[in-house]
Structure prediction request, 902 residues.
Amino acid sequence: MSNKPLNELSVKEAQTMLADGTVSSVELTRSCLETIEAKDPEIHAFVTVLADDAMDAAKRADQVRKTAKTVPPLLGIPFAVKDNFLTKGARTTASSKVLDNYYPQYSATVIEKLEASGGVILGKTNMDAWAHGSSTETSDYGPTHNPWDTSRLAGGSSGGSAAALAAAETIAAVGTETAGSIRQPSSWCGTIGFKPTYGRVSRYGVVAMGSSLDSPGPMTKSVEDTALILGVIAGHDARDATTAPVPVPDYLGDLQNDIHNLKIGLPKEYFMTDSQPGVNEMVKKAAAVYENLGAQLVEVSLLDPKYSIADYTIVQRSEVSSNLARYTGVRYGNDRCYFGDEAKRRIMLGTYALSSGYYDAYYKKAQAVRMLMKRDFDRVFEQVDLILSPTTPSTALPLGATHGQAMFGELADVLAEASSLTGHPAINMPVGLLQGLPVGMQLIGNHFAEQKILNAAYAYEQATNWRENTL
Amino acid sequence: MTYSLVCGAEIHVELNTKSKMFCGCKNDPFGAAKPNIYTCPVCLGLPGALPVPNKKAIEDCIKIGLALHCEIAEVSKFDRKHYFYPDLPKGYQISQYDEPFCVKGYVDTSFGRVGITRVHMEEDTAKMHHEVVDGVKSSLIDFNRSGVPLVEIVSEPDIKSPEQAKEFLKKVRDIVRAIGVSSCDMEKGSMRLEANVSLTSDGSLPAYKVEVKNINSFRFFANALEYETKRQAELLDKGETPTQETRGWREGYGTVSQRGKEDAADYRYMPEPDIPPFEISRDMVEHLRKELPILPEEIITSLVADGLSESAAKIVVNQTDMLEFIEQVKKLNSKYVQKAGNDLVNKKIDLKKTSPEDYLKTLENAKMDKITDEATLRPLVEKAIAENPAVVADYKAGKQNALGFFVGVVMKASGGKADPRATTDLLKKLL
Prediction:
C-alpha cells in the first residue's frame, strides 16, 4: 500500500495496514523505536523511552488482532506521551528533577483511554519543566531541538511531542495546553495540534499547571488522526468535576461534512504589525484557500491579544503557586530545592498575587477580565463559525532565545492566551514554510464546536500541500 | 473594673458519610484496623489527582444549617486555603471562604440567643502521631482521616458566660446528633471546639481577641473561658491590651500561648478551580428541610405540653430509650405521660427489664387496690384526728397544710393503700 517508511505513517495509514495484515504492531513499534534511537540523541524529544514495555504492548496487540473479532480503534498504534501524563509504574517527571524518580501508582484518564483503545506507549516526551514555558528549553533534562533545524527550539511546553512527530519518531502523540502549549510547538514543528474545549478531555492524572486552563489534546500528522484520537480521549470523566457531560460526536465519521457557507472571521488585532515579516501574509494566503472551498471570510475585531498576557500571567501564576505546594518531598519526589528558576519565579509571583490585600487587585480582577474576554468571543461567534489567525507571531527561534527572558512564553503565546482563558477549542495547521521553517495558522471555534474546526482543517489539508507553500 | 465576657465558638464536626469528601475512599478513620488503608491518589495529594465533591456531605452540611435556622446560599463554591503542614498533603485545604453554604442562623439558650455566622464544608487533615520508632523519635502520618468531610460551625461573639457556652455547645451537639450526620464524639475528635475570647467594659466589641484551641469537652470550654476571663482582666486592670494570639488549653494548667499575631497565617484563599461553583435550588433546600427529624427543642416543647416538667423533658430528650418509652406510654394511655416522665428521671426505671405495657399495668393494679370506701377509711381518719389535737387546732386556725399532714398519717396507717382524694374528702367532712 504505502511506500513510506513505517515510522512516517499516520494513524489512519497504519491502522489500514495493520488491519489488512501488511504490517504488525511489533514492526511498527520497532520502526519507531529504531528512529528514536537514531535521531533522538540529536532531537531529544523523549525524557524516558519505554522500549521494553512498548514492545510487550505491541506483541499483545498483535495477539489480540489474531483472535478478536472486533478490535479497538488504536490497537497496536505507537504513541508518544507528554511527560506530565501519569503512567502507572512508568517514570513521570513533568521534566522536573523534583519528580526525577517518581513512578506513579495510577494512570491518567487519557492514558487509560488510549491503552483501552489499544495504543502502545513508546515513551514520555520532553517538555518545559512543569509545562512552564513555550520552548522546552526550561526542561531539567535539557532542550528539545527542532527537527526542521536542530539549532532552533521546538517550542513548548509540549515540544517533545511535537518534535517526535516532526522527526517521525512516533505515529501519534498527546500533549497538554494551558495557553499555547499544544498549538505553539505544533506551529514551530509543522505538525497538527488540537487544544479541545476546556472540560472536553479529562485532566485527571495530568500534573496540574493552571487548573482552570489545562486541556489535554491530540498531536498528529493528519487531521483524520486528530479526529480519531479526540474521539477516544474526549468525554465526561467521573473523576474530573470540570469535565462536561456533553456527548462526544463522531468526529471522524463527520469529518468530510461540507464547509460551504462556513463563515470564518479574521480578527485584525491578531495579524500584529510586529509579527515576524511573512507570517501574516502566509496565513492570509492560507485563509484565501477557504474562499476557493466555498467558505466566506469576514474581518472581525477582538480585544487586543496583548491584554491577555497580563491577565493570563496572573491567573496562571496564582494557580501554579497553589498546584506546586504539594511537592514538598515529604511523601514522594525530591525536595523543593530541586525546583528550577522558572518554577521558583512562578511560585513567588503567584504567591504574591494571592496574598491578603492583593487578591482583589490581581486574581479577582484577572477573573473579571477573563469574563470580558469570554463576552468578546461570544460576540464574535454570533457573527462567524470560526476564527482564523496566525498561531504564533514567529517561526521557531534559536536555542538560547529564552535566556534572560522571564516572559518568553507569554510573548510567544500571545495569540493563544485569550482563547485559552476563555476555554475555546483551537487547532494548529501548518500552512507553509518561511525560510525553511514551518508557519502555523490556528482555527478557533466556539465551545464544544470541535467538529467545525476539524471539518475546516480537513478541507484545508485535502486542498493543499503545505510543504510546497512559500511566499 | 468589671468586665463582661465576649465569646464566639468555632465547632468542627466530622460527618459520618460512607465515603470521604472528595474521593471514594471509606470514611471510617476511627474504625480502621490499620493506618493508611483508606487512601487513594486524591486524599494522598498525589500529582494529577482531582477532587470530586461528595453530594451527601453537602446535603448534610445544608441540613445542619437548616436546623440552626440558617439562610442557605443560592450560589456557593469551594476555595483553597493554603498552609504548609505535613498532615495537609496538597499544601492547601479545600474549604469555603466567602460563599459558605449556610449563613445567619441562631441557637436560643436560656441566657439569650447566640447567632450563627456561618456553617461551611471542608475536608479534614491527616492525623499525626509522634512516636519512637526503633529508638528514633518519629512523626508518623495516618491518611485515613485525610479528606474526611468536616463541617465548621462559627458563632457570633454572643456568648456571655461559661454557663451559656456550655448550654449553647450542648444544644448544637444535640441538634447535629438528632440529624444523624455525626457522632459528635469529642474524645475521638469527631467534634472539636475552639473559643474566641475577649473582655469588654462597656459592651462594645473589643479590638483584640484570643483564640483558644485544644478544647475537647464542654467543661474544658467553660474552664477555658473562666481562665481567660481572669487572665485578661488582670492585664486590662494593668492598662494593657491582651495580645491577639492563639493559645492552647491545658486542663489543670490553663491556656498557653501558641502563635502570635505576627505569625498569623496568610491563607492565600482562591476559588478551587477543580470544582465548578454550585447553584443550590430552593427545591433541594425544601426537600432537605422535610428530611430533618424533629429537633430536640421541639421535642422538649411537646414533652412539656404532655405534662412533663422542663427538667425531666431535658433529660428524656437526650435518651433515645426514654423517649421511646414516653412515646409508647402516650400511645397506650396518655394520662400517665407525666408520671412516666417523673418516674423515668426520679425512680430510674430499668428500661431493659420494664416494657411500657408492664409499667402501665403496675400503675393500674396499684390503683385497683386503693381504699376508697368510707366504711374502711372512717376508723383510720377518726384515729388520726383523735391522736393529733394540736394539728386539728392548726387546721381550724386556717393552716391548709395541716390537711396534708393528716392525709400522710392515714396513708401510712393504710400501708399506702388509702386513696388520697377519698381520704381528703372524708377528712374535710370530719374536721
Q: What stands out?
A: DSSP finds 13 helices and 16 strands in chain B. The first strand of chain B starts at residue 4 and ends at 14. The mean pLDDT of chain B is 92. The two ends of chain B are 63 Å apart (CA to CA).
